[in-house]
């Protein structure tokens, strides 16, 4: 089964972001970890990254139309993009929200997620392993 993994703004630059917050993997390494973990769980992961809200919305529409489960790290869009929330609400397959860091343990503006209310569940704070846990959650949900 295919799953779509969407990564939002600045996640392709993990190489220069604060590794004490986001972990030691660069984006390419994170992508490989996701692809390999998905394969182990019996999924084929289509892993994408965009800094552009409109692109992420069109990927969510694509997943809604093809009923594909989605793992999304909306990055900073988490905290204010009602447009991404509305697109995510169109999904009929599970949606897992993931974060490398634990936004609740960080600055106050990160304490709000406008996405969580339309997600099946949220996994945050485990570094790159958040994605592995999300893949396992999808496996448990989909059987
Ligand atoms: C993030 C947390 C967000 O607050 C931040 O804007 C990001 C990454 C995370 O994975 O921890 O870019 O989503």
Name the quaternary structure: single chain
Number of helices: 5
**Average pLDDT number:** 98
Hey, roughly how much beta strand do the residues contain?
Answer: 15-25%
Shape: globular
Specify the helix fraction band. 25-40%
- N-to-C SSE series? EHHEHEHEEH
CATH topology: Rossmann fold
For the biggest β-sheet, the strand order reads: 2-1-3-4-5
* Contiguous uncertain segments of 5+ residues: none
**Nearest-angstrom radius of gyration?**
14 Å
Cα-to-Cα separation, first versus last residue: 11 Å
The domain tally reads 1
What's the SSE blueprint?
Layout (H helix, E strand, L loop, with lengths): L1 E6 L11 H4 L4 H14 L3 E6 L3 H14 L3 E4 L8 H7 L6 E5 L21 E4 L4 H14 L1
Helix pairs in contact: 2-5, 3-4
What features would you describe in this structure?
This protein is α/β, with parallel strands linked by helices. The chain has one domain: Rossmann fold. The protein has five helices and five strands; from the N terminus they run βααβαβαββα. The protein has helices spanning 19-22, 27-40, 53-66, 82-88, 129-142; strands spanning 2-7, 44-49, 70-73, 95-99, 121-124. A five-stranded parallel β-sheet has the order 2-1-3-4-5, with helices on both faces. Helix 2 (27-40) runs parallel beside helix 5 (129-142). The model has no long low-confidence stretch (mean pLDDT 98). Bound molecules: 1,3,4-trihydroxy-5-OXO-cyclohexanecarboxylic acid (DQA). 1,3,4-trihydroxy-5-OXO-cyclohexanecarboxylic acid (DQA) is lined by residues 10, 73, 75-76, 78, 99-101, 103, 110.
